Amino acid sequence: xxxxxxxxxxxxxxxxxxxxxxxxxxxxxxxxxxxxxxxxxxxxxxxxxxxxxxxxxxxxxxxxxxxxxxxxxxxxxxxxxxxxxxxxxxxxxxxxxxxxxxxxxxxxxxxxxxxxxxxxxxxxxxxxxxxxxxxxxxxxxxxxxxxxxxxxxxxxxxxxxxxxxxxxxxxxxxxxxxxxxxxxxxxxxxxxxxxxxxxxxxxxxxxxxxxxxxxxxxxxxxxxxxxxxxxxxxxxxxxxxxxxxxxxxxxxxxxxxxxxxxxxxxxxxxxxxxxxxxxxxxxxxxxxxxxxxxxxxxxxxxxxxxxxxxxxxxxxxxxxxxxxxxxxxxxxxxxxxxxxxxxxxxxxxxxxxxxxxxxxxxxxxxxxxxxxxxxxxxxxxxxxxxxxxxxxxxxxxxxxxxxxxxxxxxxxxxxxxxxxxxxxxxxxxxxxxxxxxxxxxxxxxxxxxxxxxxxxxx
Length: 458
What we know:
Elements: E1 6-13, E2 25-27, H1 30-34, E3 39-46, H2 58-79, E4 86-87, E5 92-94, E6 100-107, H3 111-115, E7 143-150, E8 155-162, H4 168-183, H5 196-199, H6 212-215, E9 221-232, H7 234-244, H8 254-274, E10 280-287, E11 305-312, H9 319-330, H10 335-340, H11 346-361, E12 369-375, E13 393-395, E14 401-406, E15 409-414, E16 421-428, H12 429-435, H13 439-442, E17 446-447
Parallel strand pairs: 6-7, 10-12, 12-15
Antiparallel strand pairs: 1-6, 2-5, 3-8, 3-13, 4-5, 7-8, 9-14, 9-16, 9-17, 10-11, 15-16
């Protein structure tokens, strides 16, 4: 079923109060310099739970709610002031209060029609701009929002937030604060901390080599990137954790267990194409907030992440072996490591760490495969409530297929029930066809299951 999105308006939402002069320039940290300057996409689907509203009053209901969202966003931008600014250069954000780019749109069909069998090609229309791996240039927006109202009174909020100043937890903090201001539920909006550049001082001479873009450039592909959602419910994950346990790792986490299975199946896919099992560099993004001793505030804004990598040889493809590799790599960035990155000399220590990972891929001209993971599990995305209930579905996907430059990537997210995992897999189109036929994957995961079957009843 074809759904069309009509754009109603485009504007800029400015902070309700001007940003003080001494905060007008937000300096980036060297961890911000490490990540690519792309946008982090998030899409939240909210069902209309006000069933007593007559259909004839839905338009007025949507309009009133839209005004409330804009007003609350304006208030939120006062404390999250860099989000209303513009990218100045690779070192700073100009907090000039020009505002967040804001799009209002509508769909003249009920949201349930879409969620019963989601067509991923529709999702880009729910976002305020086109997703791209291209770096954001000077003058670019920091935050872009699209609010799409449906004929049934349901609503979808799509956000693009610049990776230059947010990672997944920071983006969640911003959106959750906006929701709290909107609902005025008693949950206080977060008091964000923008002091990352004092903890991890930036460098104008930051080298090109220790960046995500440079680190994984040998694995960039040009062609058709295909995306699929693989759903693992609580029962499947419990079985996986039992199967992947060993004397070395007797208690694998759900993220480790699911990551190991996906690695094994994707590596089998690569082998079926090349006829040989190449070594595979497996990367997992690590949130450093909780690794620090004492831990950083959960309201610390910016990028508090680094990459953890494991090089898996061709004979180490059993699930328990893969879990061992993942556990060792993910836990390597510990409290001592985070402490060594702080203050003067921290950037050099970080560069040494990244270059060590880079050695594994330095001779990667077709000789090493790559799989990159990002976990958004336990972020509390399904707790973001603007006052009309928690989301029925949250996704990071931007399309089912796209002609682009990309790397093999997997984003892990909670399901609505909280005990499952949505795995968004991004692979070459031909690799995806092979993966979809992998019997071991299908024994545990469901392909493209409706989110309405995962904890939301009509």
